[in-house]
Design a protein that fits this description.
single chain; alpha/beta; Aspartate Aminotransferase, domain 2; five-stranded mixed sheet; GDC-P_C; GDC-P_N; pyridoxal phosphate binding; pyridoxal phosphate
Length: about 950
Amino acid sequence: MTANRIPLSRLEQGVPFEQRHIGPDAGDRAKMLAQVGYGSLDELTAAAVPDVIKSADALDLPEGRSEAEVLAELRGLADRNQVVDSMIGLGYYGTFTPPVILRNVMENPAWYTAYTPYQPEISQGRLEALLNFQTAVADLTGLPTSGASLLDEGTAAAEAMALSRRVGKVKEGVFLIDADAFPQTVAVIETRAEPTGVEVVVADLGEGIPAEVAERGVFGVLLQYPGASGAVRDLKPVIDAAHELGAVVTVAADLLALTLLTPPGQLGADIAVGTTQRFGVPMGFGGPHAGYMAVREKFARSLPGRLVGVSVDADGDRAYRLALQTREQHIRREKATSNICTAQVLLAVMAGMYAVYHGPEGLRAIAGRTHRFAALLAAGLRQGGVEVTEESFFDTVTARVPGRAAEVASAARERGVNLRLVDTDHVSVACDETTTRAHLAAVWESFGVGADVDQLDGAAPDALPGTLLREDAYLTHPVFHQYRSETAMLRYLRRLADRDYALDRGMIPLGSCTMKLNATTEMEPVTWPEFGALHPFAPAGQAQGYLTLIRELEERLAEVTGYDKVSLQPNAGSQGELAGLLAVRGYHRANGDPDRTVCLIPSSAHGTNAASAVMAGMKVVVVKTSDDGEIEIGDLRAKIEQYRDQLAVLMITYPSTHGVFEAHVADICAAVHDAGGQVYVDGANLNALVGLAKPGRFGGDVSHLNLHKTFCIPHGGGGPGVGPVGVRAHLAPYLPNHPLQPAAGPATGVGPVSAAPWGSAGILPISWSYVRLMGGEGLKRATQVAVLGANYIAKRLEPHFPVLYTGPGGLVAHECIIDLRPLTKATGVSVDDVAKRLVDYGFHAPTMSFPVAGTLMIEPTESENLAELDRFCEAMIAIRAEIEQVATGAWPAEDNPLRNAPHTARTLTGEWDHPYTREQAVFPSGVHAADKYWPPVRRIDQAYGDRNLVCSCPPLDAYED
């Protein structure tokens, strides 16, 4: 027995986390390597990765730790944050997340591990949830069409500015913002406006539009309702005046206030934007939160971002899908006015379900309680001799205390409450769903006022203007009335989740999207109050744990990528692209090269690249892609020479968008640098590089990363995401900064690209934990297994489907593209048919027709074990045999299991007149009845949905049909 005793030091280590994260164990990896033809992971990646980009040194990161150790370390960081009751406001408020939503949406992998619903037949649950969100926003704003969410309020307002310029009558002129708008919103708009030549004017519009501004022309106006000061005023006169000038009017509105106030649509607004954070979504030090945008019907087809619409399936039954410009930037590229390619789905689902759970009566009651506390607060201050600046307000009271503002704010902090220090003479206090009598007492004491809530309650009037009280009904659809009990809500959430396909059900092999494990250990701290309950503008001294975590994550991402500085502010990959290109622009301008505006982009690049370049004030020049999927070097060199004096930057994705390591990437970078340009390496495919190569070392000057891909933040059904940007030292002075938090970026920065100083800070503990759990060696091995998995699938499928692009040695990177075009030409079976047939086999389809039409891009990730990889390969091989049945004429081209896929349970009932059996339809090879995933709808008619655009819950008479 003694001889077999295991040393305590080894027992204490436990099972390394990388063995939990990486799917194939040592035995499986050996089998996979044998299939690919290599003896080890090192041997495989040595052959696959070009020598010119390889990193010589191991990653200089702390050694990986156990799950228990990392949670303890995170607990220590959390304890360094002070959860002080926030009454700062400015678009961020305390809220109570109903536990049934917290547990069954935010903490439920059935919701947070799903991907963007590009396969709508297996996304019906979250599409219905998003339709609820759109309906709630449309009803509350009084505008008929709402999108499925945007990144935050500041970026939604910036998108509204771009939309106003695109669709309005006035093509020149200025964008006019009321001085009472949130300062972070104004700053984001200014960041977005300057590169595109838009002049922003901020003015007090309380008395109307200044004549000197009107004379210059105004294409758009932004108003805040209620204002940052708390003021609630009738916006209709200024809206009418703006319309007389031909301007498009946007109102940034608080949805909770709109349960009591006349909505923007009734006041004449064309666009409404804002945040849904206070609908049950924690503040999270600034995000993630679902911004919103709603528009008049005539602007519906120009709405940026995601839009969920109602269509019909093959049986004529109602079905939901993404509509219209769901990937506008991929279609319009450099002509796109927005680079937004995603949404904040998980947070939008939470906010929509908050509205479903509370209904109109519950929301009105929460708003009424919030307002009542604000009215009592103001009455107590006035009783104590303190001047309240606004007579009409909803939840925010601004007090004038000449020379004493800092003293009052400090006294409040000592009593456990954060107030907003406006300037030396003014303090603002915001009430919310969580405000209590004790908070009012603490605030009064801080002002040196003694008041009693009970005494004031009978005498203090409300402060909403009678002329603006809302009179119309809203949230009238049954969904907002029938799930009041927790039992009913719980079952509704479960029913919707069962209609979806997420990583908790099976593999999602989407190329370019990296659907890897989102470990529970990584997710757990997100809902701790020490991370979730902090206001983004809280004093820095109260967020020391957060700031340490942010600094460590920035440093570790810099080490992984080879860059010198990283900013975590961009709250999506699209924002990271924009931030990186703005840094390049700032660098050239600082060097006296303002004419360097040409951005070279390969034709195969992500569409967001071109859209982001235009938004950064650049001219896009497309570089050809050769037949092998690599950049056409001859064309690139010709373009570099043609635009040598105007060249700002080359944007490339590495490994390439075609899934291969381009051997001449260093030569490409050198050629651009020799011409005075910069190199932007899109980090979408970083999952193939971590631990093997560093973009900042093989020629990149700047990259954005996708933490929701390589670093394990879940996709959440299409958001949240984080898109940090890494730069070499010479670009660091031009990273994003923030007007309300100096520590968020350099003083010389380009301004904020997100509303909060550190973007979606609330989910940064996920990536911090992943890096801490894995360590440098674990991260490298994860990359190697990702490359192994893609090559294993390529080798298994190659006899049945041609692999379109390969690199050195016939190897691919972390994804492979299989070509269906010859089969489509010969049989009529399309890439859509194969994608939908995979649903019958229990799989989410790979990425369809990107970057090449008629192909499937497959990325297995390192998290899938060999059994799941084989299950997928066997399904694809079985589908190839089914295609052969069509090719031989055994099944007609218009009536076969592929063309009719997916098959629902309902298709089994009634008459059956197909040339294949019911069993072949729903239980194809390898599918067992006990484990069957049943799609809720048949194939959806996309064209019908675009022709008949329905973007909110159908009216009651639709259900009677």
